[in-house]
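hey m, so remember when u said the tokens were messed up on ur end? i reran from scratch. heres the input so u can diff it against urs
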Amino acid sequence: MSHHSVRLKAFSVFLLCVIFLYLNSLNAPFYFDDRPNILNNLYVQMEGLAWPPLERLLRENFFSGRAIPYISFGINYLTGGFHPFGYHILNVIVHLLNACLVYLFAFKTFSLPSLRLGSGHVFQAALLAAFLWAVHPIQTNAATYIVQRMTSLSAMFFLLSFIAYIQGRLSWEDSMKKSMAWFLSSVLLGVLSLACKENTAFLPFLILAYDCMFFRGAYPPRRKFFWGLLAAALLLLAMVEWFGGMSMITRVLNNYAYRDFTLQERLLTEMRVVFHYLGQLLVPDPERLTLYYDSYPISRSFFNPWSTAVSFLGLILAAVSIFFSISSNSPGVLIYAFGALWYFVNLIMESSFLGLELVFEHRAYLPSMGIFLIMSFWIVRLKSIFTKQKHYVNCFLALFIFLELFGTVLRNQYWSNKAAFHQHALDMAPESIRVLSSLSLVYIELGDMQASREFLEKALEKKPDDIYLLAGYFLMLKDFKMDKEAEQILFKIDGLVENGGYRYRVTDILGLQELAEMFYDKEKDYKNAIKYLNYIIRIDKITNNFFKLGVGYLNLNQPEKALDPFKKSIERKPDVAEYNFFLGLAYKMLGRDREAIPYVKRALELSPRPALIKDFRRIMSGRVWSEKRPRRPWAASPRGTRMILPE
């Protein structure tokens, strides 16, 4: 049997193994951030691939700039609605493509003369690196967790960009024209990577580091490395300026106002977190994996906990060892330096000063490739050096792979059952408020209201002043028809928000939003809806909430108060037809027709739909508002019946 045939069969078995591991997760439900990004995101709910809905999806997505993942979510909705099967199929396909790209990247790297691995071992090491990476249970947090297609897609374009650069570098001496085409492709693919998720911003630096380590010329590697670092820093600063300049930095720092930790505490904690991920990678135990880390211990000082200081020393040792290894002529040392650099650098964006959540395992998806590059290289190298003792290496490898395979199957089994998933999370972190509140929601879905209430009350015992939990408890009490108790909870929420001393959390906005929507859609209590919208705007000035506020005032027949919110909506996003239309409507209700006409005409230019034209004719004919009509002047229009942005 030829080497080509053997390799093809081995590669096929590898891909089939990955597919098999994810078969039990294809009907796993939506979780956590899937809700705001997909289930509650109206713009994902496209009715076709025409440009207007696609343009709105790109303009209004939850995280501005992550265009490609949102388009993929929209296509999933278009083909299968909110059934999770299609979403998971696409996630697994992307993960499989990434596994192939890891293999290709490792193969090209291990084939370089500077590593001297030998042609007979390159395929083994490359396939092993891809296999160990793809079947590790930690990858389920990117491959099974639907919304983290953002992470897997960004990794895919990242790897494609890197491979294109390597190909261009290898073609340099043969064809300058072909080489430049590869380099241009690398740049374009790098931009696409950023259009999926911003954590790939250090791609240029890693490419420069790769070049100075593995494509050595007369120029000293360390000096080349230094200039590469400087160039990457300048590029990163240019990107920051392009995406928002100092205002972006200010926004990032302002995020700490809603967190339970400061910038200093986050930096200290993240020194431990990067080693936490490393431990999970080296010991593939699914019982150590979870989606919820809100109870992860925060480093309050350098020695509290003491592992913070140990982690700091570990980072110093890693940095020093990498720096002195980049000029080494030893292939084993060189691959260690690059793999370690890949791991730590790809964690910088989400494990440094940004005011994000402290821990999420999907953040290790791309960085972990560096660890498995090192492992696979050294396993193959040791087997070739110590031929008589290689069975010890094989035993270790077999045990590690078994743990990975078992762990991924078990982890995906958890993902497929929402109640079991959250119960496991609670066993890991019994103090987690997020797990308790999530379990409450799970039991609502299961129809067990009593169990749901018990979990929510346990969460409130731990955080009695949490607005998100209180809002959920209020809504639950309303469902139980316990109106007096519900009023007491609402009074407490109002007191927390109005006294000015409350330190808001990110989830508080969601809680207040639920209250506002409940009063508007369910209770038809527009006065209270406006009150909670004003609370939200005080915390987070989201454009759409100004629009909702204006709609609320129109429902109360107070068009004069609706003018300012509608104007603020248009100031932030002048090209939204609905914002212009409703401002024109407010002016018409005030009898200021001359001021109304330009906005309604602008709305028609932006969205010349029959329903909008019909409303326009009503405005121009003076029949939009009269005391005989109900207070909802656009009741005949399906676009005005929701608090959320009309379709």
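this time it looks ok to me. The longest helix spans residues 84-110. if urs says something different then somethings off w ur setup not the seq
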